[in-house]
Amino acid sequence: MEQKLTHLQWGNDLLALTLGWDDATPVHLTHIRSAAVSLHFTRNIPIVEIMTARHGHWEASDRLIHTTLGASMRVISSRQWQENGSRFLNVMQESIQDGVQATLQLELPDGCVMFRSTVEIRNTGTEVLSLESVTSWATLLGSPDGMSPDPGAWNIAQCRQEWLSEGRWGTKNLRELFPVISQGLTGHDPRSKHAVVSTGTWSTGNYLPMTLFISKYLGAAWFMQIEHNGAWRWETGDCTRDAYMATSGPTFDDHAWSHELQPNETFRSVPASVSVADTMQTLAEQVTAYRRTMNTAGDEIRHPHVIFNDYMNTINGDPTTQKLLPLVDAAAQVGCEVFCIDCGWYDDSGDWWPTVGEWKPSVTRFPNGLEEVTDTICAKGMIPGLWLEPEVIGVNSPVAEQLPDEAFFCRRGHRIVEQERYILDFSHPAAVSHLDSVIDHLIRDCSIGYFKFDCNVSPGAGTDIGGISPGAGMLRHLRAYNHWIDDLHRRYPDLILENCSSGGMREDFAQTSRFQVQSTSDQQDCRLYPAIAAAAPLAILPEQAANWAYPQASMDKETSAFTLVTTMLGRFFLSGYLNRMDTAQRALCAEAVRTYTQAIRPRLSKAFPFWPLGLPQWTDHLMALGMKDSDTAIVALWARRLDQGERVRLPIPHLQGVKADVTTLFPTQSGFGPWHAQWEPTQGLLTVDIPACNEGARIFQLTMPD
């Protein structure tokens, strides 16, 4: 008799997953191993959990897990293969009595220790299947071989996001969320959960769609991210002998989402990606490597251009030829490579918020045409850029009358209005055709090589055009928007795209994997920005993290250096009235650009972030961010509100035992107070003596001797 397969191992040389199942249980994770950690699971929960209008929970709760359909699935086939630099696994399950198939689809890029998971649902029955939630991934947290699982052994790190205060990571022990309640006496798991939910199109407007689970006691850590630019939910909870994590896209309960699946139709969940390691630092490196591998925006991100944008604390949305030309000249002098004209370039009325949508250059702001400015930018050796908000049409724009209602978000027969704007639905061909013609015209006639795509409104649950649920309409639009971005890269391979949503309100990986540049905030106070900048590389790639620097002629040298340091370990992103600066002030900006292009940029796209003082907290007086490769560490150190001098010790473990050379990379001009830095190889500590200051910052480099 042929032996029936009840488990399989899948992975690469760096990561291996063992999946199990049998005649009584659906597919689940039984073991996961990387070079850093090996975890086993003493209990099984289904990876795939499904809620429909007819199928709820087998144990009452409002969790994503413990679903009747999830428990009833049985494996019918599996397939492994390699393609385009990745390894793939499909595990097909079916609930015959319910007429539902669910295929778990895993992808593991070569050289990565992070995999992507999606689930495809097929209706194999004869009636409509009304989906209400589908997990992309669910598993217990597990424990190392020879140790017992314990929810209290884990801390959870999650990131609070808010306009102007992005990147605020905080950590709690799971027992603070789930106290011991002696549920074993009942024979049931607890019913509560800790769920984090995002609604609308600001996918990171409240929290990041990612979390870390870290256990120093177990020597293990997990990282999970949901790769979706709209509605999502992740959750964790106590499963009595272990804790679990689960991820999903939109749900009925949270997002007014349901998907009517006709017989033989399929639905694909939003992706989630997962990594496992021994420490947060190892996870950060693995996640960074995965994001680099999976970014589809082209080669420019590996050699990031230096960008000047006229908006922040400068022109502020009121550009004219007269204002721009002196800035263009000054930006070129300090070494900028892209000059982006931000909002307002299309406005003739002075009240442009409700009139946007045609995206035609203003004739009053630019009497000789916008081309006069963009041609000057080109003549100075820079790439011209423009701000655009592609997903909206002002209520008073002529385009609002030219496009049909079906091309806009609608609910109950009415166009949705947010802040005097309609929202385009990119699943409608008229919306896409309009934006394609706008982009084609601006590239052809104005030589635009860089677009800053902004999104300053969020339309709630979604659109019900076509009789679908609002959540389904939102998901349809966002997938169509992603396709439009992919098509732009196909049509214009050298085009540079910046993703901005009122700063960092859409920093999910569905967006950041398609863009070369990611705005991290709209924060205008240079004293507050370092907390955002230092945290950014845990959410996005360092080389795409556009942290604003906006030096001004009114600033003293230390404050100017402080704001310049904020941008230098990411995508160099400059603003400020450079043309009003004196020679020394402009020379400091030029030194920052030169240091970046000569010493930092060549390493940045291959370096990994680390945090010598831990992840920054919003009110910290001292913050540090490092970038490291095999033989070098570059460290940015900020000080705020130091009433007296302070000695700070920065651990740099990967150079411990190495007699590294320490240099100050920036600033090196005369006139700056000394920040004495000394490397202690035995302890692996960089010791820096910081003088009293309101705000000050330095960048140090540690290099292994030849």
UniProtKB/TrEMBL annotation:
EC number: 3.2.1.22
InterPro entries: Aldolase_TIM, Alpga-gal_N_sf, Alpha-glycosidase_related, GH, Glyco_hydro_36
CDD domains assigned to the protein according to its UniProt record, in alphabetical order: GH36
Transmembrane segments annotated in the record for this chain: none
UniProt-listed GO biological process terms: carbohydrate catabolic process
Keywords: Glycosidase, Hydrolase
MF GO annotations: alpha-galactosidase activity
Record-linked Pfam families: Melibiase
Gene3D superfamilies assigned: Aldolase class I, alpha-galactosidase from lactobacil brevis
PANTHER family xref list: ALPHA-GALACTOSIDASE C-RELATED, GLYCOSIDASE FAMILY 31
Record protein name field: Glycosidase
